[in-house]
Amino acid sequence: MGDERHFGFKKAQIENFLKEEFKKKFKGSAKISLRKRQKFIGEVTRKIGKRFGKDVLVLIDFTKNGFCTIVSPAQTESTDKGKLVKSFSHPQVFYTTHCVDRFSERMHSHENCVITLDAFFNEAMSTYGENDGFLTCPDGVFAYELIEDRLIVKTYINFDLLSDDQIKQFYGSGMISMLPREYATEDVFGADFILADEHDELLDKPKD
Asked: What is the pLDDT of residues 91-127, one digit of tens each?
């Protein structure tokens, strides 16, 4: 009940803040272009994340003078490991606040980080068992720990921050498909490595 009351108070604050920002930015009833909408969403999302936290999703209706719908933040709980944020998609997955903050910082993400984290985590789940304590997605690596039937995601490491040895560890022969797309090449003969099925296709091609 206390959490619901707190969210109701925060919701009212965000709605009032958004109305004021909308009035400052858009005067009159002229049609608002897509480019202006995108710019406004980016600006207010950063401001809302900084002032009210990164765990709230705000949907803005530009046809109704900035009327918005606010999606309740993820459930949180305090533990001996600090505050944990519950995943929207997976009831048994929890992110530490350290993970949420690092993800926001490294991905330059100011919107609802839990929703974005869930999207990345969905991809990473298919790599369970490849590296004990780690899950890999094309954009980076999650460090996790299993505690009492819960999967606690401790932190997120962006791909750009990985050392050469870590890239070999997390994106080895069984994980090549998880490499970021910019590491792929259209010219297969200029590649540093070739997937087995692609190699077989090359062998089957007649030589000029």
From this structure: 889 999 889 888 888 877 666 678 788 888 888 888 8
Among 3.30.2310, 1.20.120, 3.40.30, 1.10.10, name the CATH number for the domain at 76-178. 3.30.2310
Domain ranges of the chain: 2-71, 76-178
* pTM of structure: 0.57
Q: How buried is residue 143: exposed, middle or buried, by Cβ count under 10 Å (0-12/13-18/19+)?
A: middle
Q: pLDDT tens digit string along 26-37?
A: 877 677 887 888
3-state per-residue secondary structure call for 68-110: EEEECCCCEEEECCEEEEECCCCCCEEEEHHHHHHHHHHCCCC
Collapsing DSSP to helix, strand or coil, 182 comes out as helix
